[in-house]
Every structure is written in structure tokens, then in C-alpha cells.
Amino acid sequence: MPNWNKNIGLLSLVIIVSLFSEKVYGIDHVTFRRGGTTTTVSGKTVVEAEDGGQMVMTANGHYWLITAEEIIDSYSDEATFKLYDSKELEKELLSEFSDKYRVTHTDHFVICHNTTDHYAKWCGLLFESLYEEYYKLLGGKGLKVDDVETPMVVLLFNSKMEYERYSRAELGDATDNIIGFYSQKTNRIAFYDLTGVDKEYLGKKVKFRTQIRHILKQPQAERLVATLIHEATHQIILNSGLQKRYADIPLWIAEGLAVYFESPNMRKTNGWNTPGRVNRSRLIQFRQYGKNRPANSVETLIQNNTRCANSETAADAYAEAWALTHYLFKKREKDFIPYLKELSKREPLVEYTKQERLDDFRKYFGDELDKFDKSFLRYVSRLR
Ligand SMILES: [Zn+2]
Q1: Who surrounds ion ligand 1 at CB < 5 A?
Q2: What tens digit of pLDDT does each residue of 13-27 get?
């Protein structure tokens, strides 16, 4: 599950300040008062609202949404803004978490964990192979998929309790039902070991393969792999510029892409090897939903986020989002890539209305949604 904060509209009438330019001069310092506490953040203003509200990115990649009413003082200097590199991220993580945590580096990720080193290494390998597959699938197609500017932060907790202690501030009561998440605010992904097996190996000497094989044999392993890949996909998409953080991207496509990548492959030693495999559990769910599926199902899915966001309808909506994304990738790629390109232009905190969503969808996939739906369903009916 994602953590898509519902902050669209918080800053009204936005003026966009350039975000992804290579060198950005000037550091903005904003002092604000929230819940009785005064805080100063220093970084780069990503969005400035006409009413004075600001979204500021600090050097660790966190976004701060500050309303005009909260701001006490704001000024800029001439210093150069630079995102933290992997060493600076490591230093910050080690001071934030207790001395039971260690940091592992891969080419594109900084992994802070109190799990075993083997577990962290395994997750790092999964994320790096996802990174590679992501670029293989989407790079070189005219889409904006840049190499990420700084390493992405991953948190791995060895127990549900410690994961919950960290997550509750952001997820609130939803923490109990969310087994891993990507945060648009902190730009981090966080998980715990669903299988519970890793803990048994803490402080023990064992071969990497032996331990990972044991973890992957557990009944929860498929779900664990799917979650790791799913959330890391959100993170990579929003760090490579395919979509922008806090842009009002329709949930069906944000989730559809994550689900498209997530499908585990338990025959592989890592538990995953490639995106776009038939996602069995989503297919079964979609076929179940098909028994009472309304004729305007695609329309309601693309027009608003309700079906994906509401816990009662989410399972069906995610299944349909997966099926639709699968269909678009496999059968309509020539239209799908330009559609993704259109979405990548959407700026943070700017509302994407129901009508605009529908218009854009029709622009790339045709006016006749009935006809579209027929070929979509025909395609899914043949999936095995
Ligand atoms: Zn998600």
C-alpha cells in the first residue's frame, strides 16, 4: 500500500519553482509554528503558493508542506543547495536510529536496518535488479526516466513492533494494515520482515543462500517480495522523474505501475526477476470482480481515486488497475508511453480534475470507451 498524502489543494493557486535543474543556487530558510512548536527548515522551495504557502525540500530529500498561516519568517541566502550523498545520508540515519541499526550501501540505495546483514543484502539485490528492469522497460522510449540524483533510502525493521513505532507518526491507525510503504514526504521506503524468520539468524553465522532460501520457503514470502518491489517501484518512479512527488497522479496508474512490477517469481533464487509477469492473485481477484463488474468500470477507475483509496473497494480496484496496466503495456504500448509522458508533466499539488483525467485518457486510447473495454476484457480473458 502507498502513503499518498491527501495534500492536493493544500497550497492553492500554485506557482511552480523549477525542481529538477542540475545546479540550484540559493538556500531558503523557513521558520514556522505548528502544534505549539517552532521549526526552521532550510532547503529548496519546490512549490510556492500565491498565498505564501511553501513546499520546501531539505538536503535529505524530505518535503515540508508549510501553509502561509504557519510561516513566521522566511529568507534566502546565496549558498549552493545540494542533496545529501550516500555518506551524509548514512550519518543522518545512524544518528536517527539506535546503535542496533547498521547501514548498507548499494549503487542506488542506502539501506538502514536492524535485520541481519544477509537480509539487507538480499533486499538490496532485489532493489537493484528492479532498478535495472525499470530502465530496461522504460528507458530509451522518450520518457523522462533519469538516473536518480542521490541514493534512495530504505528502512528494514526486523520486527513488526519496531516498524510500527517508526511508521505510526506518518500512517496513524492505518499502520496496523500497511506492511510496507513509500512516503512522498520523506522519500523513504520502510518494511518489516513479514516472515519473522530473519530474527532467528541475528548474531548467527550462516551462509547467505541458506538463510534466504529459508525465508523464501515461508508462506508469507510471496507477499513480502511483492511488497518490497511494489513500494520500491513507487520510489524509483518518483525519483527518476517519470512522475513528480505530490503531483496529482491518478491512483489507478500509480498503483497499476507498482503492481505491474511486483509479481514475484518464487522459482528464482531472489524471489523476483522481471516485471510484467501475470500477477496471479490480482488476476483471480479481477475475474471475481468481473462477475458483477459495472459497464463503466474503466471510466470510474480513471476518473477518481475513490475506488483505489477506499479499503472496501481497493482490492478490486488494484486488480483492475493491474489488468489495465498489463493490457496497456502489452497491447497498447504505442499509446501508453505518450500517455505516461503526458502524466510526467504534471506538477506537484496541482489538481487533476475528473474531466481532465477522462479527456487525457480518451486522447490516447480513443473516444469509444465501450470499444476499449471490450478489447481490454478480451485480452484479460486469455491470460493464464
Ligand atoms: Zn502502492
Answers
A1: 2, 255, 258
A2: 444 444 444 445 689
